[in-house]
C-alpha cells in the first residue's frame, strides 16, 4: 500500500500553449475563478569582472593559490582581499602553500539547481599554516565518513582553467604522501 | 529619541504557495487585519498613518523590481512617504527597526511596516540558487552555493568546539514544530520525534530536512506609533489600546564570506567574563558575531544586564535548528558552548506542553513559542515582522483571540526579544519589546 501512495509521475514545468480559457456569463462568478499561472522565462549572461581580485584566477590557471597580506599590519587572507579588514591598508599578493587542513566541512546531498547534478559533494573551509583567514573549496575523492576537522588536504588544479574558484580543489593528503 | 509603541499587527497564513493572491493581495490581508484588530476603518487610518516601510528580500523571486510601491498603491497609501528595506533574512527585522527610527526620530507619528515574499514563483532548487546568490558570487557561490551547506559547515565547527550533538539540534526541531501545532498561522502541522528528525532525508550533513525551514509565501504588517500617534489612534478608535513599548534596538554585521571571519576574543555581555572563554577563538565559523553585537546594543538600550534572567521569551531566527542553538549563545541566554545543553535541559521549551522528552528545566525561558521559522515558514521579507506580531500578541495576552486557543500564551510575560538574521550571520537585528504598564 505504501508503495502505491508513493507512485507518481514527477511534475515538470513543460506546459501546453493555450490561447483562451472558459469565461462565465455571470461576472459575479469571477472571484471564484482559479488563478491563471503562466511560465515566464528569464535568462541572462552577465559581464562579470573579477576586478582587483583577477590575479587570484590567473594564479589558479597557473597552478598557484594566491592570497593577500596587509602591507601595514601583516594580517593575511587566504581568500584575497586587496584592502585589509583589520586596518584599512592596501594588501599585496602572496603565494599560499598547496597543503592545508580542514577547518570545517559538510557533504551536500541536495543543492542549488546549478549544482544538483554534482551531489553529493563535499565543501570544506581550508586553513593554511600562518595565514589568518580561510578558503572555501571542494574536497574530492572521499565520502562523508572519511572527513574530519584537522585532516590534511592538498590542492589539485583543473588542466583547462575555467577562471572559477573551482579551478582549484582539494584531495586528502596522508602524511606519507606529503613529502613526495 | 522619542518612545515608540507597537500598536497592532497582522499576518497572512504562511503556505507553500499562494497562487490565489498576488503579493499585493497578501500584504492587504495582513494590513487589513492590523486595522481590524483596532476597529480602525480605512478612511480614519489613512488620516492617521504618516508613511510606511516595505520589506522584501529578493527581486529574483518575482522578476519584478519596485514591488514595494505596488504594495503601497494597492493598500491605498499613496502619496504618503515609503521606502523599501533589504537585508537578506534580516529584511523583516531591519524593516521593523526602520519604522522604529521613523517614529523615534520624530519624522512620523504613525508608521506601518509591511513585508512579504512569494517564493513559490520558482521551483525549490531554483529558489535555493537565488538564496545562494546572497553569497559572494566570485568566490563562494560557484564552489557549490547552497545555504544549508554553509550552515552545516558552521555547526560542524560548533560540534567540534563544544561537543554539540545532532540529537540536541533535533530537540530544537521537535520543540518548534510542536509549538507550531497550536499556531493556526504556521505552515507545517507535524509533531516529529528526535528519531523522525534524524531519519528525515539528509540535506547537508548533519542537517536533515526537518532541521531546516521551508520556503513560503506570506505577508505580515505592524503598526508603530509615538505618544502623539497613540493619542490620535485612541481618538479615532475611541478605544483603550493594549500597548507594547519598543525599549531597545540593536544591529550587528559580519563579513559576507565565512572564510574571512576573524578568530579573536569573545565580545562580552555584562554577565560574562573573559575567563569564561579562555581558549575560544571568536567568532570563527561557529558563532554569529553580528548576533552578539545586535544583542549587546539592544540590551544596553533596554537596560538588560542578564538576558537569560530578564527576558520572558524570545522569538529568534531559527532558519536551521543549529542556528537556534548558536543564537542562544550569541544572545547570552546561556554561555558560548552551552547551547546544546541549554536545549537538552529544556530551558527554551514552552511550559505545560508535552514534548515527549524529559526536560528538567522546561519553560525557564521559552524560545520561539510561535514555532519559529522551522515550522511557521520563512517568507523572507515577512518573517521578521511575523515575529514582531507574534511577540506583540504574546505581550498583549491576546494569543487566544488571534490563535483561537490559549496553549501558546505565556502567563503574564513582561518583556520579550525578537531576533532577525541574514545570510550566515551577516546582518542581525535584535529588538526588545515590553508590555506597557
Ligand atoms: Zn592591515
Describe how the helices and strands are arranged.
The complex is a heterodimer of chains A (180) and B (437).
Chain A: H1 2-6, H2 54-61, E1 66-70, E2 76-77, E3 91-95, E4 99-108, E5 121-127, E6 135-140, E7 152-157, E8 168-172, H3 175-178
Parallel strand pairs in A: 6-8
Antiparallel strand pairs in A: 1-2, 1-3, 4-5, 4-7, 5-6, 7-8
Chain B: E1 4-11, H1 23-36, H2 42-48, E2 51-55, H3 67-74, E3 82-85, H4 91-104, E4 110-118, H5 124-132, H6 141-144, H7 147-162, H8 166-180, H9 194-199, E5 202-204, E6 207-208, E7 217-225, H10 227-237, E8 244-253, E9 263-264, E10 282-283, H11 289-302, H12 307-310, E11 313-315, H13 321-330, H14 339-345, H15 372-376, H16 380-396, H17 399-403, E12 415-421, E13 427-435
Helix pairs in contact in B: 1-3, 4-16, 8-13, 8-14, 13-14
Bound molecules: zinc ion.
Domain ChsH2 rubredoxin-like zinc ribbon (chain A): 58-90
InterPro entries (chain A): ChsH2_C, ChsH2_Znr, NA-bd_OB-fold, Thioester_dehydratase-like
Protein name (chain A): Nucleotide-binding protein
Q: In words, what does this structure look like?
A:
By secondary structure, chain A is mainly beta. Chain A has a domain of 122 residues. Helices cover 9% and strands 26% of the residues of chain A. Chain A has three helices and eight strands; from the N terminus they run H-H-E-E-E-E-E-E-E-E-H. In chain A, the strands form two sheets. A five-stranded mixed beta barrel of chain A has the order 4-5-6-8-7. In chain A, a hairpin with a 5-residue loop joins strand 1 and strand 2. The radius of gyration of chain A is 25 Å and the shape is elongated. By secondary structure, chain B is α+β, with helices and mostly antiparallel strands. Chain B is globular and about 60 Å long. In chain B, the strands form three sheets. Chain B has a nine-stranded mixed β-sheet with strand order 3-2-4-7-1-8-13-12-11, with helices on both faces. Chain B has 17 helices and 13 strands. In chain B, helix 1 crosses helix 3, helix 4 crosses helix 16 and helix 8 packs across helix 13. Chain B folds into two domains: 139 residues, Thiolase/Chalcone synthase (Peroxisomal Thiolase, Chain A, domain 1); 188 residues, Peroxisomal Thiolase, Chain A, domain 1 (3-Layer(aba) Sandwich), CATH 3.40.47.10. At the A-B interface, strand 4, strand 5 and strand 6 of A face helix 5, helix 6, helix 7 and strand 5 of B. The site of zinc ion (ZN) has 8 residues of chain A, from loops.
